[in-house]
Structure formats: structure tokens, C-alpha cells
Automatic annotation (TrEMBL):
Residues 80-121 form the Serine acetyltransferase N-terminal domain. It comes from Kaistella solincola. This is Serine acetyltransferase. NCBIfam families: EPS_EpsC. It comes from the Bacteria. PANTHER family: SERINE ACETYLTRANSFERASE. Keywords: Acyltransferase, Amino-acid biosynthesis, Transferase. The keyword Cytoplasm does not apply.
């Protein structure tokens, strides 16, 4: 029995398409994030030091990129770094949006150092660039690393605009074909998902579109590829939406509150869950 399992395990290794080191891939994006936002204890004091560190990261990324491409393919060594300046500017705008919208934030540096939402957004933006260039495995490994660290699950295929604000963040799910515009704010527990899951829908838009300026509060669930949340709309907490909402709408769940002392004396409150 053990021998049979050993044979199957060996066959799995020998037939594996990629020669990857998952920990190395995770370590790269974690260290790169800390380097570019100056979160390391030992910082570069000279321009030449920064350039040397960037070149070191480039060499390391080349090895990682080669490990996930077929051996007969030549990895594009600049596929990540050529877009880095643009992504970096987007992330600075994201950090400013978080600072401007969160009264608890004391500085942009605090956002970069400690906010899980900013880390998840940063990893997503780098992963999305690789996703767009059809690089296998790395984008998903990166975003799942962010997911494990922050509780924020952003598929690298999602399209997210500028000045994106995530507050608290735990439990957020943003599906692969989600489209999010500019200046959108999302709070913890929000799901931007599909009506249902089926493998044959792999190449179909199954997740919603959130237009510019929308605000989605905690634990709201928005489902469906044809569902559009119009610009500047406010989606209240705990709502369930499967149809489009026009621009400038306010959607909320209406709860009912009954004061306890209005019930007759000694009569139990009957309820169901």
C-alpha cells in the first residue's frame, strides 16, 4: 500500500508542469512591498543603494518567472518592473484615499505600515499586472498570501479603479470578473460574487460592476455579472442585491425594533431563528 502511494507521489512530481517554490514566490512580494514603502529597518540612503536593491529584486523575479513558464518559453524579464512606476503611483493614491476617508488614520505612513486593506490592494495591483500578461500561478499565490494575512480575498482578475478604499476589510470577497470604478469605498464582510458557481461559466462575466463613487457598507452581498451599482450610490449594511441599482441610490435593510417593556407582563417573547 505504501509502495503504491510512493509510486503515485513520484509520478506526480515527475509530471509536474512547473518547478515552483511557493514560499519563495510569497517571500518576494512581501519583501518587495516592505522595500518600496520604506517599511524595512535598514533603509537605502543613497540612490545607488536603491538601484542595487531593485536590480536584486529583478534578478530574483526572473528566476521566479522562469519557474512558472514552460521551459520552451522565454520569460519576459521586464513584465513586472516596466509597469512598476504606474502601479506605485496608483498605490500612493490608494493610501491617500484611505487616509482622507478614515477619521482614525493619523497619517499616510500609518496606512502604509499597518492597514490590512492597503496591503491587500497593493498585492492585488501587482498581481493584476501579471494576470493581464497571462502569467500562471504567481498572481493567485500573491493574492492568496494577502488573503491569509488580512482576510481580504481579491481575485487578481478583478478590475479596480483609482483611489480604492477598504476599511477594516476582514471577510471581503471580490470575484474574478468584478469591475470597480474610481473612488469606491468598501467595508468589512462585503461580497461581490456570482449568482451560482459552474465551471462552464469560467469565461463569462459573473460578478457585479460597481461604478464610480459608490459606497458599500459592512456585510452587503452583491451578486451577478449583469448587476450594476450605479455611481455615487450608497449600499447599506447587510443588504442582498441581485439586480442593478440606478445612480445616486440609497439601498438599506429596514429593521424593526420593538421595545421590550411594551409586551404584556409575564408573557414570553416568541421568536424564531
Amino acid at each position: 500500500m505504501i509502495m503504491g502511494f510512493t509510486n503515485r507521489l513520484h509520478e506526480g512530481y515527475s509530471n509536474r508542469k512547473f518547478d515552483i517554490d511557493k514560499k519563495k514566490i510569497e517571500s518576494f512580494i512581501d519583501r518587495f512591498f516592505r522595500f518600496i514603502f520604506f517599511l524595512e529597518l535598514q533603509r537605502c540612503s543613497e540612490y545607488s543603494d536603491i538601484e542595487a536593491r531593485l536590480n536584486s529584486f529583478k534578478s530574483e523575479f526572473n528566476e521566479i518567472l522562469f519557474s512558472v513558464t514552460a521551459k520552451n518559453e522565454e520569460a519576459e524579464t521586464e513584465i513586472f518592473f516596466k509597469s512598476f512606476p504606474e502601479i506605485y503611483e496608483s498605490l500612493k493614491n490608494d493610501a491617500k484615499a484611505i487616509f482622507d476617508n478614515d477619521p482614525a488614520a493619523q497619517s499616510i505612513e500609518e496606512v502604509m505600515f499597518s492597514y490590512p486593506g492597503f496591503f491587500a490592494i497593493a498585492v492585488y495591483r501587482f498581481a493584476h499586472e501579471l494576470y493581464n500578461n497571462k502569467i500562471p500561478l504567481i498572481p493567485r499565490i500573491w493574492t492568496e498570501l494577502a488573503h491569509s494575512k488580512t482576510g481580504i480575498d481579491i481575485n487578481p482578475g478583478a478590475k479596480i479603479g483609482e483611489n480604492f478604499f477598504i476599511d477594516h476589510g476582514t471577510g471581503i470577497v471580490i470575484g474574478e470578473t468584478t469591475v470597480i470604478g474610481n473612488n469606491v469605498k468598501i467595508y468589512q464582510g462585503v461580497t461581490l460574487g456570482a449568482h451560482f458557481v459552474a465551471k462552464e461559466l469560467a469565461n463569462v462575466k459573473r460578478h457585479p460592476t460597481i461604478e464610480n463613487g459608490a459606497v458599500i457598507y459592512a456585510n452587503a452581498t452583491i451578486l451577478g455579472g449583469n448587476t450594476v451599482i450605479g455611481e455615487n450610490s450608497v449600499i447599506g449594511g447587510n443588504v442582498w442585491i441581485t439586480e442593478s441599482v440606478p445612480a445616486n441610490s440609497v439601498v438599506f435593510h429596514k429593521g424593526q425594533v420593538t421595545v421590550k417593556n411594551k409586551f404584556p407582563a409575564n408573557e414570553p417573547i416568541i421568536f424564531s431563528i
